[in-house]
Specification:
- The complex is a heterodimer of chains A (about 110) and B (about 110).
- By secondary structure, chain A is mainly beta.
- Chain A has strands at about 5, 10-15, 20-25, 35-40, 45-50, 55-60, 65-70, 75-80, 85-95, 100-105, 105-110.
- Helix content of chain A is about 0%, strand content about 60%.
- In chain A, the strands form 2 sheets. In chain A, strands 2, 4, 5, 6, 9, 10 and 11 form a 7-stranded mixed sheet that branches.
- The radius of gyration of chain A is 13 Å and the shape is globular.
- In chain A, about 35% of the residues are buried.
- Chain B has strands at about 5, 10-15, 20-25, 30-40, 45-50, 55, 60-65, 70-75, 85-90, 95-100, 100-105.
- In chain B, the strands form 2 sheets. In chain B, strands 2, 4, 5, 9, 10 and 11 form a 6-stranded mixed sheet that branches.
- The mean pLDDT of chain B is about 95.
- With about 110 residues, chain B is mainly β.
- The chains are: A mainly beta (about 110), B mainly beta (about 110).
- Chains A and B meet through strand 5, strand 9 and strand 10 of A and strand 4, strand 5, strand 9 and strand 10 of B.
């Protein structure tokens, strides 16, 4: 079956520390993958998307980066976190034009 | 103007009530439409796709008006378990754009 895994579920990091969030998809090949951020009480903001290995598109300029080292792996990183990076980070996989996206369970990041 | 706009609510309704949410989108090239449900501190999950002719899934009815560029979701006979945030989602040129969501609380 097709599943998407995301970890960790919760993370508390100090300002200036690095970040690495991982997302993997099973049961499909060459998926379109997405990273979203949801700030408290706000809508989902698209951060990055990838249509294949090594292909990353950024939606908004920020101190975050993304990489796709393998077909079913998508990583979100930062070298130095800011307080404003706090939020709920969601990885998503495009299930199909008529089926929308399937989301991972999310990582709740608090930068202190 | 936001690409996808929703009334943030909150909507507080009693059990058994009928409640309707509306959503407007700005890009006439939008291709497909969805309603997602998001429970508190959880990921969004697909509730239903929205088809041009309108579609129904149990107590939920979705409508699309392309001329006016709005989408609606009707929930009949509300249950306590319907309490959640409902996200309107529009597929624009293969990118999904999310509304900020409408918060619904169903009370006993």
């Amino acid at each position: 079956s097709q599943t998407i895994h995301q970890w960790p579920a919760t993370l508390v990091q100090p300002v200036g520390s690095p970040l690495s969030l991982e997302c993997t998809v099973e049961g499909t090949s060459n998926p379109n993958l997405y990273w979203y951020r949801q700030a408290a009480g706000r809508g989902l903001q698209l951060l990055f998307y990838s249509v294949g290995i090594g292909q990353i598109s950024s939606e908004v300029p920020q101190n975050l980066s993304a990489s796709r080292p393998q077909d079913r792996q998508f990583i979100l990183s930062s070298k130095k976190l800011l307080l404003s990076d706090s939020g709920f980070y969601l990885c998503a996989w495009k299930t199909g034009a008529n089926y929308g996206y399937t989301f991972g369970s999310g990582t709740r990041l608090t930068v202190v | 103007r936001k690409e996808v706009e929703q009334d943030p609510g909150p909507f507080n309704v009693p059990e058994g009530a009928t409640v309707a949410f509306n959503c407007t989108y700005s890009n006439s090239a939008s291709q497909s439409f969805f309603w997602y449900r998001q429970d508190c501190r959880k990921e969004p999950k697909l509730l239903m796709s929205v088809y041009s002719s309108g579609n129904e899934d149990g107590r939920f009815t979705a409508q699309l008006n392309r001329a006016s560029q709005y989408i609606s979701l009707l929930i009949r006979d509300s249950k306590l378990s319907d309490s959640a945030t409902y996200l309107c989602v529009v597929n624009i040129l293969n990118d999904m754009r999310f509304g900020a969501g409408t918060r619904l609380t169903v009370k006993p």
